[in-house]
Each structure stands twice: as structure tokens, then as C-alpha cells.
Amino acid sequence: MINIPQIWISDLTHTKQGISAATFPLGASYVYSYANKFLGKEIDFKLFKFPEDLNDSLKINFPTVMSFSNYSWNFELSYKFAHVCKQINPNLITIFGGPNFPTEKDEKISFLSNREAIDFYIELEGETGFHSLVKELINNNFDLHKIKENNLLIDNICYLDADKNLIEGPQKRVLNINDIPSPYLDGNLDHFFNLPLIPMLETTRGCPFACSFCADGLASKNRVTRYEHQRTLDELTYIAKRVNNIEELIITDLNFGMYKQDVETAKLIASTQKTYNFPTLIGASPGKNQPKRILDVSRIIKGWNMGAAIQSTDPEVLKAIKRSNLSTEAYRTLMEESALDGTKTESAVILAMPGDTKEKHFKSIKFCLDNKVSTMRMFQAMLLVGTHMAEKKTRETYELKTKFRTIPGTLGTYDIAGNKYPVAEIEEIIVGNKTLTEDDYIECRKFNLFVVTFYNNSIFEEIFPLLEDQKISAYDLIYFIYKNTNLYTQKINEILKKFVKETKEDLYDSWEDANKYVLTPEILAKYIGGDMGTNELLNGRAEFIQNFEDTCTLVMNSVKELFKEKGLFNKTVSDYLKELTMYLNCKKGNVIKNTEETVFHKFNYNFSVIDLKDIKTKNLRSKKLKESVNLKFYHDDNQKKFIENQLRVYSKHAIGLGKLFQQTDMRKVYRKVEVVL
Predict the structure, then answer these.
(1) What CA–CA distance (Å, rounded) separates 498 from 508?
(2) Which one of 119, 183, 225, 654 is CB 3.0 to 4.6 Å from 409, fit for a cystine?
(3) CA angle in degrees (0–180, nearest 5) for 518-519-525
């Protein structure tokens, strides 16, 4: 038997604090399938997701070529494998590709000069560049030096020649993405269905927008292409038949719901949901235009948190990041109509972008809450390699103040070719600019924590209608909680103190300082153990939810004080709020851990039939029962299974329950309520 060259394609994830990127390696599998289609008879391709599997294969033999995806959450791990393996076998050829790469020529040279274990880098779409490069490697008998000595121009490939000059081939995209074989339908992803990983699906590729904070905002990625609907249906069916205790599907489209073809895609998903009861949850970034069409799509499918990410409402900030949002009226209409349908919506705001201030940040949040968005996503501004916002000109113009930190869940000690190596992924975040002080940044983060805790996931939706009846908005309540620290219990203060401490700590002035510190053995052990380096926003929210009684008490006491300020607090309101507090504790307290627990409690209001979304202070007295009613709170079998499946995916992650609470529609988790006769 003739031995043919082996080329390994790896989309690695960290695993020492659970599976960090708990998704199918879709992007790498496209590269694998495309290359295998044209070169499978000449090359033995293999696909890897986990570093342990890659290391096990290295124990048997080394390939001719090792290639790796490059994202902010896996680059150092991938590079460590490449570096170690090239030291052992200098003839090994290494290829990297992905969005985590500079856009400026001098920065590309610096990147490749400092990472000498990278022989070639693929820019733009991986399928074209990888295929073109492998063909040249075959034609040159895998002689790396011959290619570099001749300064060959290869589509989508850049590299340094012997004199450290940057050689860049022409940038090309796949003309027809349907030419890329489906890695699902070819069976290349079958073994991943047995793992706690979320399948991903791409129906379109490209983005017409130019946001400066996003790697997909580059002009080279503006053309949008689409897979045929029959292929999408076949992939959906294939996935639905094989998923194993997984509830979620991630659609990787950058503007889902915005295009007219997305309506047809939604119908395919709805059909799959009806036939296979999958997916029950859908993760997809909504489009930035066409709100009516996005709303239509959200009405067709179930489990998608439809919305519109605004990042900021301030014109100066939007101009600085080259961002355009829906008009105020269009955004309001989208949220109002979604609320009427009961569709869950979400929006996102990013803190500390160029030109941002504390006042602008709070105003952006108020805009979203006042327009009845269901869920708010609060992000810190990250300076991602390969984005315009990370360029020197932007940094200097807006005097961006940045720090470096470990990305939660992306570190550990790994076995590579016979030795152990500590590895950590480091990111750069903005903590201030010429209009936002670092103290204001901390205050904004505290307010972010209150918003995601007290507003998201319908956790206190029963309270807001009562407030709105008296012209008190959800934002007013959360701002009141933020300002009135005298209402905090000891436990609330402990959670906040820990949150602020984690927000300020583990931040360093340089990548080198952050990396050196975290890789110290005793510090690395603390990170892996969860004592350091967690996602403070998700963890803080999880602690609030797990201490629901204290959290609920804080909210209800704040409601009382707001009513007192308006002269509306009386015995009727007091009695109702007292009973509503108990009802919420029974329905939503400790819902994840005690799924077998059934709670009974007597109430003077029949909360199982009262329309809490239409409750008003003037009719509280009429809603009170003459005789109390006994209510039963419980999880049914479908809920128990849903919670079990979600814990399977998220519970072992470094940010554990915090990630679960963020990704899950908690309305599916809150206990059911019925009257006991």
C-alpha cells in the first residue's frame, strides 16, 4: 500500500475547564470537505476538535502538514501545538487561517515575524486558500523552501519569504458556495453528535455592513452568497435525526432574517421543529435592516430571540464605529409588534467604544428597555485583531485605554508530543477613553449587572406592568436599585463586592504581563479551579439568581419605595406585593438544582389565572379572594428533560450556570403552577 501525505485540519477548543467552544467545528469542516472533494485521492485529510485527540494521533505519527483555525479563543493553544511539533520535526509545514489576523501590512509582518512556527496564513475564505496552497505544495513535492524562494503568489495566502518580505496572493472568494460539499451530508461530522456539542448551520455567507469592531466588517467580506434551500433542508433533517440530548441549533449567518430568502429558510426550520421537535432553541444574529421581515421570520420559527443589536444609540459613537442602526421608529415598531406576539426579543449594547461616556451608555440601555426589548446583552469592547477599531489610528484618535486579561475558560496545561505545556488565551479590552474614565467604566459595569439580572429572562416580568400603570418604567426601577445601596442585604453587598473585585482584577498593561502571570503554576491552578479569571458578569448574575430570595427582596423593597415616593403605597399594595414576592420565590427560586421538588403554598390571590401583564393598582382589591387558594409549583417531565440537556452542555463550562442562564429561555425552566383543590 502506498503511503500518501497526511494533512490534519484542527479547530481546537480549550477543555481544562470544560469544553470552552462547545460547538461543532463547522468552519474547519467546510475547509476539510472542500479540499477532500478535489484532493482526497492524493491526500489523507483528518479533522480534529479536541487537543487530546490531536495529541493521541501525534503519538502514532506526525502528518506532513498541520493546519489550524485562528480565533481569539484558541490561537495560543493551536500555536503551541504548531511550535512544539515544528521543533520536533522542522520539515513539518504549518498553516493557519481565520479572522484573528491583522489587516495592515506592517502588522501582518510583525505578526508572522513573532510567530515563526506559522509557515502560511490563509486570509478571507479558507476553502479557496487552503485548496490553492495544498495544490502548490503537491506540485512542489511539499518543499516549503521552494515555494518561498520563488515568491509564489497563491490565492488568499500570505507568508514571509526568506528575506522577511510579506508575500500576499490575490484575495478571492468562493464564487458559488454550493460548490462546497456539505460536511454533514458527507458524514464528516457524524462522530461529533455523540458529544455535548451544539450543531451549527450556515445558510448565507458575507455581510454588507462595515462595523469597525467586527472582523466581518471588512470590504472583502461584503458580498453575500447563499446555499440552496434543498441543501439547507437536507442538512436540517440530517442534524435533527442525529442530535443526542441537545436542544440548540446555532445559525452562523451574520444577518439572519434580513433577506427575503430567510423567510423560506424559516419555514424549513419550522417544518423540522414540527417533525423532530428540534431545535427548541435557536441562536442567530438578527439582521440590521428589514425589521418587518425579521419579525415575520420570528413568527414562523420557535425558540429564536429575535431583536436588533444597537451597540449604542449615540450618533457620535455610531459614526466612530461605522455603524448604522434601525431608525428609532422602526426599532420601536419591531419591539412593540414582537411583544404583542409574545415573541422574545433581544438587543446588545457595547461599553467603552470610541466616543462613549457613562451618560451615553446609560441612555442606550434606557432606549432598549423603554422599547420593551425582552433581553439585554451587555458586552465589553474588545479590540479584536483584524478589525478597524484595533488599528493604531483609532486608538490614538479616541485615546483608547486598554487592558489585557485571560479569556474565561481558555487556559490549561496540555499534553503535546510527550511533554506538558501551560497555555492561555489573552484578549485586549477597552476600559476607558478620552470621554470615559475608568471609574465610570466600573459604574457602567455594575449597572450592566443589574440590567441582566433584574430585567432579562422574564425574571421579574410580573412586576413591571404594575409599575408602568403608575408611569414607572423598568429602567426607572433598575436605576433606583442601582442608586439606593441602603436597600442591599448583606448577601447582595457580598455579590457586588465580588463582582467589582473581579472586574478590576486580572487586568494587565500588556499581553506579555497577562500571559506571564496567568501561566505561573499556582495562578494557573486558581484559574482552572474557578477562583480567578471567570466571566464576572455571568457569574454575578448566576449568584443573584441562585440567591433568589435576597434578589427578590431587593426588587420588592425598591418597588415599595418607589410607590411611597408617589404616595401610592397603602395596605392593599403592601399585601399584594407580599404575596407576589412569595409567588415569585415559589415559581422561580432555585429552579435548576431542585427539579424534583414540588412546592405548595396558599395565596389570597389566584396567581395561576390573574393576567399579571394587565394588573393595575386600582383593581388589586377586586383581585383578592375571599378564601385563599392552594397553588402547586412543579417541573413537568418535559422541563426536567430540557434542564438536564442544558446542564449537559453548560454545567462543566468554566462559567457554568452563568452561561446557561444567558443562553436559555428561562421561561422554559420556571416551575409550572396549578390550583390544588
Answers:
(1) 19
(2) 654
(3) 80
Greater model confidence, 360 or 345: 360
State the DSSP H helix or E strand holding residue 149, giving kind and residue range, or none if neither: helix 144-149
Domain locations in the chain as residue ranges: 6-168
75, 85, 87, 115, 139 from 90: Cα distances, Å: 21, 8, 6, 15, 20
Predicted confidence band at 416 (pLDDT cuts at 50, 70, 90)?
A: very high
Q: Is the dihedral of CA 207, 211, 213, 217 positive or negative?
A: positive
Q: What is the pLDDT of residues 112-121, one digit of tens each?
A: 999 999 999 9
CB crowding 490-507: b at 16 or more within 10 Å, else e? ebbeebbeebbebbeebb
Contact 385, 391 (CB under 8 A): no
* Continuous segment of H or E residues that includes residue 66: strand 65-69
Other C-beta atoms lying within 10 Å of the C-beta of residue 594: 12
Strand pairing partners for 602? 630
The model's pLDDT over 5-60, given as tens digits with 9 standing for 90+, comes to 999 999 999 999 889 999 999 999 999 999 999 999 999 999 999 999 999 999 99
Mean pLDDT of 609-623: 81
Class for the domain spanning 6-168: alpha beta
Q: Which helix (H) or strand (E) holds 44?
A: strand 44-48
Q: End-to-end alpha-carbon separation of the chain, Å? A: 77
Peptide bond preceding 279: is omega within 30 degrees of 0, i.e. cis? yes
Rounded Cα distance between 528 and 540, Å, is: 18
Cα(55)–Cα(57) distance, integer angstroms: 5
Query: What is the DSSP code string of 193-251?
Result: GGSS-B-EE-SEE--S---TTSGGGSGGG---EE--HHHHHHHHHHHHHH--S--EEEE
Q: CA-based angle 526:428:659, to the nearest 5?
A: 55
**pLDDT on residue 215:** 47
442 CB-side CA count, 13 A:
12
